[in-house]
């Protein structure tokens, strides 16, 4: 059973906060969550001299905490025990990573605005450094999740995400679909016919699925789809299939074996995050990777 001992919800005082808090409530109503931390950091470096001249030494932290309290009272109520944390630090990523470690946060909920409204630069940084799994909720997202897409590449991290998704579907009655995007070694064309290459590639992948099902019998019966990347990236194929299948959530496993934090996220999750998908994106780290 999936249970969350602590969840952190990152707020930025924009319009998306209300949706994010309401989505946090939806999670708490469907999964056991011990405690939720609603957090916001005031970047002291962004407080200009003009601000100080106009407003003086106002207790900004108390004002913001009051604003967040109003939103939480309206959209979260008493869905789970919760606490509001407002800090004043020059580096938001560092303080949030520290909160994850301090409160043993297992899941961070992060809002994402559409392209044109924000660069989402802070979100990209948080994906790279927060030592926990992250659920990204786009401003166009919906709460009624019924179908979940899990792309896998047969790595340990993607298999972990798949097994976690299976546990989630058993708890909540969700429909799962596995997806694998493959590429053909085009440098060998026309020496080998494209038709034969496609057939051989799909045979190899199906053998991998069979071996995976033998190793993890709990995933037997979950439908899977093979998609050729062709002239598109893996992330683009995932996005197209996500829209075509009308899935309500996308789950991706994250690799964490690179010692350089800025390189540990992976190109596919990065490209997916930076695209305009309109469903929640669950980026999953395994406990071993986090440790």
TrEMBL record:
<dbReference type="Pfam" id="PF00582">
    <property type="entry name" value="Usp"/>
</dbReference>
<feature type="domain" description="UspA">
    <location>
        <begin position="145"/>
        <end position="272"/>
    </location>
</feature>
<protein>
    <submittedName>
        <fullName>Nucleotide-binding universal stress protein, UspA family</fullName>
    </submittedName>
</protein>
<dbReference type="InterPro" id="IPR006016">
    <property type="entry name" value="UspA"/>
</dbReference>
